[in-house]
Amino acid sequence: MKHQKLKTTPEISQRMANIKLKRGDSEAKLAKALWHKGKRYRLNYRKLPGSPDIVLTKAKIAIFIDGEFWHGYDWVNRNLKLKSNREYWVEKIEENIDRDNRNNLRLRDMGWISIRFWEKEIKNDFDKCLNIIISTIGSK
């Protein structure tokens, strides 16, 4: 199925243009905490599949912080609630989910560990997320 041209209003276009795709608050907070723990990293590392948000090259860990809407959080339930441009958004988000899964497999095949957090996990339980990363580094 090919993408349809999304019919949108100027207001929706402006709202979409304001969405930050890189260095969101959650990513910045997590990166800063890793730096303070002495963990050096690269941001939005384009040499790896999916351009992970944070990459710990020595430990071969790729960290993704996924927005709930764009990456399909609770997709089984959420996709039923989409009303506006439903067909377009279902296709778009399911493509994102499939691409995320493919990138995880590609990273694994390259010997990397892929860690994915939902953005709200970083906001709601930051210490748990940070500890997952630290313990993953320690287990290598």
Please render the helix and strand layout as text:
Blueprint: H1 10-17, H2 25-36, E1 42-43, E2 54-56, E3 61-66, H3 68-71, H4 75-81, H5 86-109, E4 113-118, H6 119-124, H7 126-138
Structure at a glance:
The chain is α+β, with helices and mostly antiparallel strands.
Task: List key phrases describing it.
140 residues, alpha+beta, Endonuclease, Chain A, 4-stranded mixed beta sheet, 7 helices, 4 strands, 53% helix, 12% strand, globular
Structural features, described:
The chain is an alpha+beta fold and 140 residues long. The protein has one domain (23-138): 3-Layer(aba) Sandwich (Endonuclease, Chain A). The chain is built from seven helices and four strands. It has helices at 10-17, 25-36, 68-71, 75-81, 86-109, 119-124, 126-138; strands at 42-43, 54-56, 61-66, 113-118. Strands 1-2-3-4 form a four-stranded mixed sheet, sandwiched between helices. The model has no long low-confidence stretch (mean pLDDT 88).
